[in-house]
Amino acid sequence: MTESQLFNLPTPLQLECGATLPTVQVAYHTYGTLNAAQDNVVWVCHALTANADVLTWWSGLFGPGYLFDPADYFIICANVLGSCYGSTGPLTPVSEGSEPLYQAFPLVTIRDMVAAHDQLRQHLGFSKIHTLIGGSLGGQQALEWAVQQPTLFENLVVLATNAQHSPWGIAFNESQRLAIQADQTYYSATPEGGQHGLKAARAMALLSYRSYEAYGTTQAEVEGDKLDQFRASSYQQYQGDKLVARFNAYTYVTLSKAMDSHNVGRGRGSLAAALKQIQARTLVIGITSDVLFPPAEQQLLARHIPTAQYVEMESHFGHDGFLIETVQITRFLERFYSRRLVHS
Q1: In terms of DSSP bridges, do strands 129-135 and 41-45 run parallel, antiparallel, or are they unpaired?
Q2: How many other β-carbons are positioned within 10 Å of the β-carbon of residue 228?
């Protein structure tokens, strides 16, 4: 992982819920060199449990030899507000000398994330961004930002995301939060609080990230006479432990609630009216097997964003296809741009 950089917001951040964070820091990574025309900026918005080091989790799309190569583009990815990878969140003090707020950390929305990242954008001096790209929660953030500042982005690429988080998606998130909050250690206000609940929550989430076909392909038993200790069971345990080792329950609750808050139409008349404000040339990518953000949600985006193109990936990987199917995504993007991103 490359070294993270930190930006401290110059003033307190007023959140959409009415609370105020006295101090806010944003962790971010940059790769490559800004060209003389400053028109080679690619801004990446990451998903729920990812971090700002996009080269580690979107390899195949970002990195040397791939479509978004740091040798050609100035790539930036910032950690979202409320996360645990360097930006202000439940495990970081929100003012000098204070203790972390843990479960008392205030409600953060997608719009609050955009507000923090736009201050970073201004700090870096970008008045134009060639491409804004994000999937899932990152796509929600990208859409909100493109609605707020329609002239800032030349191209917008969103994958496996939506204009408003669905009742289905909120129900998945609430079920996971119930698992976390059923773990009594969640209320201990320590960094390790809620770990058993977080493990269960991750196992639940996987069922929405993958598909029936994916489990059938990767977790099927070789022996047909087993009574216990199935591969699928071990896989759920393994993935739960893996997240617990790098994340925390308080951040998971905070960010899942932020995802629930997503609604570009809030205060703007309707979803359609909000999406019509986007001026960026837009590529919307759906995934055939995505049960969490089904293709109908991306099709809605494409219908109402004036310059949008819609494409659909054939994949058995479900929602996680936006991270895995980089060959298909690269092909879609090459057709979308139909020219090199960087201008000499």
Answers
A1: parallel
A2: 5
pTM of the shown model: 0.95
**Cα–Cα distance measured from residue 37 to residue 151, given in angstroms and rounded to the nearest whole number:** 17
Nearest Cα neighbor of 205 from 274, 163, 259 is 259
Contact 23, 49 (CB under 8 A): no
Give dist(CA 54, CA 255) in Å, integer: 18
Which residues are part of the catalytic machinery?
Answer: 136, 290, 319
Rounded CA separation 102/181 (Å): 13
**Are 91 and 250 a contacting pair, CB within 8 Å?**
yes
User: How distant, in Å, are the alpha carbons of 93, 117, 204, 254 from that of 23?
Assistant: 9, 14, 34, 17
Domains of the chain: 5-165+262-337 (3.40.50.1820), 169-258 (1.10.1740.110)
Please tell me what DSSP assigns to residue 280.
S
What is the residue-level pLDDT of the chain in tens, covering all 344 positions? 467 899 999 999 999 999 999 999 999 999 999 999 999 999 999 999 999 999 999 999 999 999 999 999 999 999 999 999 999 999 999 888 889 999 999 999 999 999 999 999 999 999 999 999 999 999 999 999 999 999 999 999 999 999 999 999 999 999 999 999 999 999 999 999 999 999 999 999 999 999 999 999 999 998 888 899 999 999 999 999 999 999 999 999 999 999 999 999 999 999 999 999 999 999 999 999 999 999 999 999 999 999 999 999 999 999 999 999 999 999 999 999 985 444 43
Answer for the pair 206, 195: CB distance below 8 angstroms, yes or no.
no
Binding residues for substrate: 202, 320
Helix axes 195-209, 231-244, angle to 10 degrees: 120
Give just the sign of the alpha carbon dihedral 94, 53, 112, 290. Answer: negative
